[in-house]
Amino acid sequence: MALGAVLAPAALAVNSGRVEYYHRDALDNVRVVTDENGQVLERHDYLPFGEECTTGACAPNPGMVGGQPRRFTGKERDPETGHDYFGARYYSQRVGRFTTIDPHLGHRAALVDPQRWNRYAYGRNNPLRYVDPDGRDAIDYVGGVANAFGSNFFAGAGRAYGGNADFQFGQFVGDVISIPAGGAWAQAGAGTAGLGVAASAPSGGVSLVATAGGVVSMAQGGVAALAGFAHAGAYLSKNTTAGSDMSASGQATDKYGNKLGPSGKPMVHETQSNTREAARNKALNDGVGAVEHGNPKHGKPHFHATDLRGEKKPASTHHNYPKK
Questions:
Q1: Does residue 247 lie in a domain region?
Q2: pLDDT, tens digit, 9 for 90 and up, residues 167-192
Q3: Same domain, yes or no, for 3 and 117?
Q4: Which of 5, 28, 37, 47 minimizes the number of CB atoms within 10 Å of its CB?
């Protein structure tokens, strides 16, 4: 993973008034901290489950509680316990386990995935592939793609519903892939069926077995393509529709799709979080990304969920966090 894959512009407030920048890798681990002149102030190296490497070549690293607070997957480390705060619960990188049970166990997924049976486990026990954004569910684009693609070819059997935004986006990708793949499978089935019919007389009807198989493939491919089209359309509608002047229930809305109250002002749905990170994680669960309003004209600073275009989702919830 390349260091500096992401440059976090948020500055750290330190006693000297110096601006510091986080440089993170593909798993969002803070690997390097620099000042405004690009000089390296800290380096961090991690074992797979997040424990800091501080021996050998890593000896100059600041250790588990030294330096700035954000470490493994960008989460803030508690200086007293050394645990990382994930929003829903704390994580101990020394043992590779959360300190409390998973508060959001997906029972359907757990029935077919033994890695979810241990409710203290981090990232399905595979931290090099999965990241848990808030202590409730592991990010897995690949799993979403595989789930949607496979279920579309079996009339929806085994399709998972729910999951975090990343899994849902993976399903969207799998649904899109299903459209041309299903069409190609149906076309191949049609060709096989045609050849079976043409060869039925010379083969004494034996080739009709191939015809039957081709017909099944045609149906399977057609169903997969239609299911992929329907699910992908539903995902796009949910994440990109901008609303209108009237809600589905007949209530007036503004140009962003926010419902208007009796005063004519938008009705705002809010949640309250104790930290900025927890508020951001809530917004990520509602959409593809998150946008921050750190200094709003009214109310507390908050995050909104964003759609595929990176725009604030219509009528999205204000996930508030305390002012500093």
A1: no
A2: 788 899 899 999 999 999 999 989 98
A3: yes
A4: 37
pLDDT tens-digit series, residues 265-304: 666 688 899 888 888 888 877 776 788 888 887 788 998 8
How many domains, the chain? 3
Same domain, 153 and 223: yes
225 is in which domain, residue-wise?
A: 143-240
Residues in the chain: 324
Q: Are residues 127 and 161 in the same domain?
A: no
Pairwise CA distance, residues 190 & 197, whole Å: 11
Gyration radius of the chain over CA positions = 25
Q: How far apart are the first and last CA of the chain?
A: 34
Under the phi-then-psi rule, with left for phi > 0, alpha for psi from -120 to 50, and beta for the rest, what region is 28? Answer: left
Cα(157)–Cα(150) distance, integer angstroms: 9
State the alpha helices, DSSP H only, in 159-254.
165-198, 208-240
What own/partner pairs with CB < 8 Å and gap ≥ 24 does 253-261 have? 253/315, 256/312, 256/314, 256/315, 257/314, 257/315, 258/314, 258/315, 259/315
Boundary of a domain, candidates 240, 273, 288: 240
Could you tell me if 126 and 20 lie in one domain? yes
Residue closest to 147 by CA, chosen among 117, 119, 168: 168
Among 42-46, 246-250, 254-258, 299-303, which stretch is predicted with the lowest mean pLDDT? Answer: 246-250
Query: Rounded to 5 degrees, what angle do the CA atoms 47, 32, 132 make?
Result: 50
Is 161 found in the same domain as 119? no
Mean predicted confidence (pLDDT) in 45-54: 90
Claim: this prediction has a pTM higher than 0.85: no
Distance of CA 286 to the CA centre of its chain: 10
Do residues 315 and 262 share a domain? yes
The H-or-E segment that residue 277 falls in is: helix 276-286
Residue that terminates a domain, selected from 138, 164, 197: 138
* Residue 43 CB neighbour total at 10 angstroms: 17
In the block, residue with structure tokens 């750190």 = 294
Q: What sign for the dihedral angle of Cα 102, 170, 241, 8?
A: positive
